[in-house]
Amino acid sequence: MWPVTYLMLQAVEGNGILFLYIVATMYAGELIWRERDTRFEQIHDALPVPSWLDTLGKLIALASAEAVLLFVVMLCGIVSQATTGYFHFELLQYFKELYVVTFPSVLIFALLAFFVQTIVSNKFVGHGVVIGIFILTLVLDAMGISDRLYVYGTLCLTPIPI
Question: How many structural domains compose the chain?
């Protein structure tokens, strides 16, 4: 059986998405709590830089970290294909699956982690809340409650009838 591209992507999407969610949860906590942990938040808030610019920089850092991790996933898939002697790489399929389908869902979850860490008064409680939301989505899906109104971060891939 040849390691074709869709098989490589199925292997990544199974357990790889969990790793990306964990990185998003932990990195969002570190970004938000960086100034608070070092007791630098009052000095940082007094700087003449708008606060939205700092928040935007943190969000861009979080999104670029996830994009780099997806690029590493693509490279690992290509390397594992090449080591088994399969050299028909479908780069467009890698790009579509990783950056058009997977990246938005990971980014939406990262924004949730960023939001939770912003409003919660303890970094570790924020981690617990984000992990709880992730587990709750799995439990709701197992119970058959998978409506987009109840489950956070589901993408509408089918057209909505008018």
Answer: 1
pTM for this model (two decimals):
0.83
Whether 75 is in a domain gets the answer yes
Angle (CA) 92-17-114 rounded to 5° is: 110
Which amino acid, residue 1? M
Q: Report which of 4, 11, 2 is spatially closest to residue 89, judged by C-alpha positions.
A: 4
162 is a domain residue: no
Q: Provide the 10 A C-beta neighbour count for residue 139.
A: 10
Per-residue tokens: 62: 């979080």
Average pLDDT, the chain: 86
Residue 143 has pLDDT above 90, yes or no: no
Domain membership of residue 22 as a residue range: 5-142
Distance CA 58, CA 33 (A): 11
Q: What count of residues does the chain have?
A: 162
pLDDT of the residue at 15:
75
32 CB contacts (<8 Å, ≥6 apart)?
A: 58, 114, 117, 118, 123, 126
